[in-house]
Amino acid sequence: MESILTLGFYFMTFYAFIPGILSRVFGYQVFKKGKASHEIALTFDDGPDPIYTAQLLDLLQRYDAKATFFVVGVHAKQNPELLKRMRDEGHTIGVHNYEHKTNWFMRPKTVRKHIKMTNDIIEEVTGQRSIYYRPPWGIVNLFDYGNVSRLNIILWSSLFGDWHKKISAEKLESRLMKKLQPGEVLLLHDCGRTFGADVNAPRSMLIALEVFLEAATMQQMKLVNIESMIKVTEQNSKKKLSRSKKVMISLWLTWEKVFHQVMRLKDIESQNGPMFHYRLIKYKGKSFMMNDGQTLSQGDRIVELHFDNRKLSHIAFTSKNPLVVAVKTIREVERALPALALRITDEAKNTPIKAIQGITMINRGADKLGFSIHEMPKGLFLSSTKIYLKWLMKILTPTQTVTATRRVREQVQEEPKILLMTLERLQQYMPLDHSYSVTKQQEVLAAQQEVLTSS
């Protein structure tokens, strides 16, 4: 019996208690407080309520305040007109389970079912699914991070016990006024029809909230929904770089200039500034079969590509997390390929070029652009490249917020890979706004054949 109790204790510790501490205390993979200059996020749980939610929406409308409503599925199903009104008046709707039950005592499958059922109702009424989730009482279990991999878990920075009728409007007003500060994520309740709550408790909440909204307006505070608070937080986080990081970036960009001069890299200008630098070299690695069936062998002439590090740093510091860095980088690569095709086509008139090559950790999606992706041979070069690129990503990557971090490892590969593209495939990106493309390709093929014949 003792062993069963011990086993149960360990199970609950890892299933519930530790995830709860990680999320509530340390904010692991959740959003609970913002970084803002004059924004406050209002959030409401447990509704919609047929009486008090309508009154709350009237109040918010009078003060031009926006909020986030984490709805219980059964209540949402009974009051679809209130969901429509939330949407129409610019509020955000989030999921708060189908029934108000704690995730600690539900199986992962049940939690997924609750989320899906509630989101189905939201989509049916408003036309779109929610991307925000708040578990009842803010309690998560070990599997919730996987259950809500496509949702953002939103907790709070302050709550006030307003679900109890014994909390008077005056006491609640006093508590609220102490949190009249930018960046706060306030948790209130627009419905008292859940376990442990009082049905008429929202009456006091509405009285206190009106005083709070009046004071916030006088102090020029802006009441926003959670997506606005997250956006402001990410913008403010990007502006703050540690002194050590600034020094490291400065040294890194200086090193890039020296490297370009030593390696005699050439620039490839595009509309948004250079994305690539390159040099022509003879390939010295093992043979690779590329996407169109051609084989790259030792001695073949290739274009060795290098990202423009200043461009990469700009992408990183205007992105909220490594996933966005990867997506933006791939998009910038795609935009720069026409300019690359023009330049390399000119180079190929005098030098037979088999392929272009790059080495990067940002390689997910590169195959859709026409690159073939290959493993790097094991050895000192791979080890040193891996260390350098991981260090580089750490330096460039801004502090991560809740919106992003779950699928980063899938998108930003931890292992550097070799990207290859044949010249013929690259030339498909030649601009088609005039006849230059086809004519130029014909000239290049003829010139290459002449060079090969003479050699």
Radius of gyration: 28 Å
Distance between the termini: 85 Å
CATH class placement of the largest domain? Alpha Beta
Number of strands: 16
Portion of residues within helices: 40-55%
Shape from CA axes?
elongated
Tell me what the structure shows:
By secondary structure, this protein is α/β, with parallel strands linked by helices. 47% of the residues lie in helices and 15% in strands. The strands form four sheets. Strands 1, 2, 3, 6, 7 and 8 form a six-stranded parallel sheet that branches. Helix 2 (52-62) runs parallel beside helix 8 (201-218), helix 4 (80-88) packs across helix 5 (108-126) and helix 7 (169-177) runs parallel beside helix 8. The longest helix has 27 residues, at 322-348. The protein is elongated.
Entry keywords:
6-stranded mixed beta sheet, TIM Barrel, 6-stranded parallel beta sheet, alpha/beta, 16 helices, 455 residues, 47% helix, single chain, 2 domains, disordered N terminus
Question: What is shown here, in short?
Answer:
With 455 residues, this protein is an alpha/beta fold.
Topology:
Blueprint (H helix, E strand, L loop, with lengths): L1 H23 L14 E7 L6 H11 L5 E4 L1 H6 L1 H9 L3 E4 L12 H19 L5 E2 L10 H4 L4 E2 L4 E2 L9 H9 L7 E5 L11 H18 L3 E3 L1 H14 L3 H21 L2 E3 L7 E7 L5 E2 L5 E2 L4 E7 L1 H9 L4 H27 L6 E6 L11 E4 L4 H17 L11 H4 L5 E6 H4 L9 H19 L1
Helix pairs in contact: 2-8, 4-5, 7-8
